[in-house]
Amino acid sequence: MAKEKVAMITAGGSGMGAAAARRLAADGYRVAILSSSGKGEALASELGGVGVTGSNQSSDDLKRLVDLAVSSWGRIDVLVNSAGHGPRAPIVEVSDDDWHRGLDTYLMNVIRSVRLVTPVMQDQRAGAIINISTAWAFEPSEMFPTSAVFRAGLAAYTKIYADTYAKDNIRINNILPGWIDSLPATEARRESVPMKRYGTSEEIAATVAFLASEGAGYITGQNIRVDGGLTRSV
């Protein structure tokens, strides 16, 4: 009998994280979901998976989910790192505490979960890690200072990790969404996109599903823009 495929999704209670969990479950994955609101645990139950109510800023909460997934199914094939929203303010008005909160929200959330999942994937000699980042990681916007700064760091982390663990058949990639329908819509933002529309959470989830699939088996260390052409010139 073929082994069941298992996907772990952090910050998976709503938005792009929840859409990714639904898509992977539809593709036949068992899902383990973490969220701070309790919605992830409820969604996991709906999808026939397991869930933990906790924070991706807590190594203990993440370890609970890793342990639960492994005890339930014996493996973790895919890790999807989503995130909430970090502090925003004019660049010189971001306080020290808010910079640290941004670090926890947009970079350490990945570092913590990857540290826990890597030994599992090494034992399997296979795994795919997919981080939901931002279109503004390389062309930063003053609207999202902490996100842009720390997700630029995430791009560097991803490349170093890819170099280190490709030999173990573990892949890691970042998705860079632009304006997505999980965010408040404005006409100015819509008009700034060459496709003249917001993307959907389901389109991000479809990209997650592709990067998790065997068809993406030769893709690692990449930052993949899914933004309707918003950053097409860079």
TrEMBL record:
<dbReference type="InterPro" id="IPR002347">
    <property type="entry name" value="SDR_fam"/>
</dbReference>
<comment type="similarity">
    <text>Belongs to the short-chain dehydrogenases/reductases (SDR) family.</text>
</comment>
<dbReference type="InterPro" id="IPR036291">
    <property type="entry name" value="NAD(P)-bd_dom_sf"/>
</dbReference>
<protein>
    <submittedName>
        <fullName>NAD(P)-dependent dehydrogenase (Short-subunit alcohol dehydrogenase family)</fullName>
    </submittedName>
</protein>
<dbReference type="InterPro" id="IPR050259">
    <property type="entry name" value="SDR"/>
</dbReference>
<dbReference type="Pfam" id="PF13561">
    <property type="entry name" value="adh_short_C2"/>
</dbReference>
